[in-house]
Amino acid sequence: MDVENLKQTDPIKRIIEKDNSEGLSPMDPPNAYSPQNIGEISYEFMHPFLQGLIDEHKAFVKVLNVFEESLINWRSNGWIFDQEINAGLKQFFNFFDEKILIHNQREEKILFPLLHRKLIETGEHNSKDTFYTGINLMEDEHMKVSQAAAVIFNFLGLASRLHDNRSKEILFETAYEQGMAIVETMRLHIYREENILFPQAMQLFTTFDLEKLT
């Protein structure tokens, strides 16, 4: 992941633009990867709920790395599945169903609504739509990853029933591209949460708010 390029192009950067009245020009918005009002917060100073999410992220990254390697090997192998490739793909889909979906639901039900409200209250929202914050982007990414995973799973099942090799290759290529998109999206998503949203939560939440994180 090219972090330096993302610092300039990431859409979440535009979400937290400030009005001119606050001393910042729309032509020179704050950097989303080093926001002016967000300091770094190390793991040990995070709330236990956020620490738990970070711990789960570490497990996600390990599975993503295996998934990415399996996808690359699958393509290099001429779309032929071997035992190792099958194992890597199966591990991801099982992990997605058993762990990632539950993780996303916890964020969406417990953390995101409260942080979304706090971001609106403190002006950390899109300059054109005051109800659009970084939380909306995070929720969109949850949905996109789920949709892409469903596409891959369905395309692999459909391809197994086709006899035409060219049609199979088209489905396999699409599944590969969707898989690589999942890897990149989830890596960036995790980076954003751990370096932007979680520190924002620790800064903006009151003691009472933090007690709601269970």
Mean pLDDT: 87
Please report the total strand number as a whole number. 0
C-alpha Rg, in Å? 20 Å
Tally of individual domains: 1
Fraction in helix: over 70%
Query: Mind telling me which CATH architecture this is?
Result: Up-down Bundle
How much beta, percentage-wise? under 5%
CATH class: Mainly Alpha
CATH homologous superfamily grouping:
nmb1532 protein domain like
Q: Which descriptor suits the 3D outline?
A: elongated
| SSE series | HHHHHHH
User: What fold name goes in the CATH topology slot?
Assistant: Four Helix Bundle (Hemerythrin (Met), subunit A)
Low-pLDDT runs of 5+ residues are 16-36
Describe the biggest sheet? none
> What is the terminal-to-terminal distance?
32 Å
* SS summary, helix count: 7
Helix/strand structural class = mainly alpha
Relevant terms:
single chain, 214 residues, mainly alpha, Four Helix Bundle (Hemerythrin (Met), subunit A), 71% helix, elongated
Can you walk me through this structure?
The chain has about 210 residues and is mostly helical. It has one domain: nmb1532 protein domain like (Four Helix Bundle (Hemerythrin (Met), subunit A), Up-down Bundle). About 70% of the residues lie in helices and about 0% in strands. Helix 3 packs antiparallel against helix 4 (about 85-120) and helix 5 runs antiparallel to helix 6 (about 165-205). The chain is elongated, with a radius of gyration of 20 Å.
List the helices and strands and how they pair.
Layout: H1 3-9, H2 11-15, H3 48-76, H4 83-121, H5 134-159, H6 165-204, H7 207-211
